[in-house]
Structures are given as C-alpha cells and as structure tokens.
Amino acid sequence: MSEGVQIENSSATHPEPLSQADTAPSFTTISLTAAPQDMASKRALVILAKGAEEMETVIPTDVMRRAGIKVTVAGLTGKEPVQCSRDVFICPDASLEDARKEGPYDVVVLPGGNLGAQNLSESAAVKDILKDQESRKGLIAAICAGPTALLAHGIGYGSKVTTHPLAKDKMMNGAHYSYSESRVEKDGNILTSRGPGTSFEFGLAIVETLLGKEVAEQMSSKHEFTWVLFLCH
C-alpha cells in the first residue's frame, strides 16, 4: 500500500449468517491522508464531488504526492467521506470552503464521473475557483467527464480539449472548444484527459507542467509507470 493512503473496508464480520434483509451493503473507504510536504513548492487542489470516478481522483493525487507536490483533496460539500461512482468512499483532507482560504493553488484538478462532473458543473464555488484560476493563468486539469464543468462555467473557451468519448458531444455543444482524440491534451493552461485508463498519464502531465519533464520522467522510471502506461495503451 502506498504511503499516506489508508483503505478501510466497512463490512462487519458476523458470527452467524444473516438474512439478505439484515445484511448491509459493503463499502470501501479510502483516506487520502497527506504525507508531510513542508518543503513542497507546488500546491494542488483536487475538488472531490459525490459521484467522482475513483481512479481519476486517487491516481493523479498519488502521482502528484510522489513527485513532492502538496495536494489538498477538498470535499465539495464538506469534509465528510464522499461516495464515489463505484461505492468507494474517499475521505477529503478538507472541505472546499476551508481549502479555498488556503489558495491560490498551482493547479486545480477536476476528476470525472458523470454524477461527479454534474455536481462540479452546478457548483457556484467551483465556478468562482475556476474563474480565479483562469484569471491568474494557473493550470486547470480535468479528466473524463470533468472537462464538461469547464464548459458549464465558461472556462478555457477556444482551447483544444479531450474528454471521455461519451462526453464529446456534450463538450462540443456550442463549439466553444476544438476536440482532440489524444489521451492527454494540453493547450495553454488547460490540461485534459480521457478517462480512468489515462489517469497515470494525466497525473504525470500535471507533474511535468509544474515541475518539469525531467522530474516526470524520473517519476515514471522510478515507480515503473512506464510499464503501467504500456499496459493501458
């Protein structure tokens, strides 16, 4: 298990078999507790909404932390565990309300997931954060259905973007963007990616943008990400 990541299975062990009516569903909870990063010069804000895609949240967070980026996973509606798309519960580091007070951040990250992206798209707080990040020319990174939140909030118009294939039509509604089939696409300060299978590449692209290509290549080599990326293609 990676340092700083705690996984808890909430299923209880019963001495006797229970009937189906008495058996509660089993869920997994992940606490993305940040390791000490006092010397980190770059900071990331990952906005976690109910229905977010787990891999698109955890993998980029892990990759960024391994690179020395100080990551805050912020719960959109509070600090309580957030139910993600596959019934994994992720424990945020802070509420978005509190995390905003610690800004600005070098990158704002939007995970995907249909419901998660919808919740990000409907949030006035997310709009304010993205508008501020855009005005400062800070990096904005979104993956899978996450880029549709950029469309909803009027962010990055004119940029070349990619999304999950099923989100393409929605993203292209209004012709505010040009579309790319690339697994990761960076246009100026807008960085987008396709989905769960491109989460490692997405995380490494953030690392490369903030810390440089050499650091990203060292990360890929040290942690065998090259092999993972080969399997994902």
UniProtKB/TrEMBL annotation:
Keyword rRNA-binding (UniProt): no
Gene: PARK7
Bilayer topology: Lipid-anchor
DJ-1/PfpI domain sequence ranges: 42-208
Protein name: protein deglycase
Swiss-Prot/TrEMBL GO biological process terms: adult locomotory behavior; androgen receptor signaling pathway; autophagy; cellular response to glyoxal; cellular response to hydrogen peroxide; detection of oxidative stress; detoxification of copper ion; detoxification of hydrogen peroxide
Listed SUPFAM superfamilies: Class I glutamine amidotransferase-like
One Gene Ontology term of the molecular function aspect: kinase binding
InterPro entries assigned to the protein according to its UniProt record, in alphabetical order: Class_I_gatase-like, DJ-1, DJ-1/PfpI, Prot/Nucl_acid_deglycase
UniProt keyword ATP-binding, yes or no: no
One GO cellular component term noted in the UniProt record for this chain: synaptic vesicle
Chain residue ranges for the region called Disordered: 1-23
EC number: 3.5.1.124
Highest rank taxon of the organism: Eukaryota
Family: Belongs to the peptidase C56 family.
Catalyzed reaction equations: N(2)-(1-hydroxy-2-oxopropyl)-dGTP + H2O = lactate + dGTP + H(+); N(6)-(1-hydroxy-2-oxopropyl)-L-lysyl-[protein] + H2O = lactate + L-lysyl-[protein] + H(+); N(2)-(1-hydroxy-2-oxopropyl)-GDP + H2O = lactate + GDP + H(+); N(2)-(1-hydroxy-2-oxoethyl)-GDP + H2O = glycolate + GDP + H(+)
Entry's localization field: Cell membrane; Cytoplasm; Endoplasmic reticulum; Membrane raft
Keywords: Acetylation, Autophagy, Cell membrane, Chaperone, Copper, Cytoplasm, Endoplasmic reticulum, Fertilization, Hydrolase, Inflammatory response, Isopeptide bond, Lipoprotein, Membrane, Mitochondrion, Nucleus, Oxidation, Palmitate, Phosphoprotein, Protease, RNA-binding, Stress response, Ubl conjugation, Zymogen
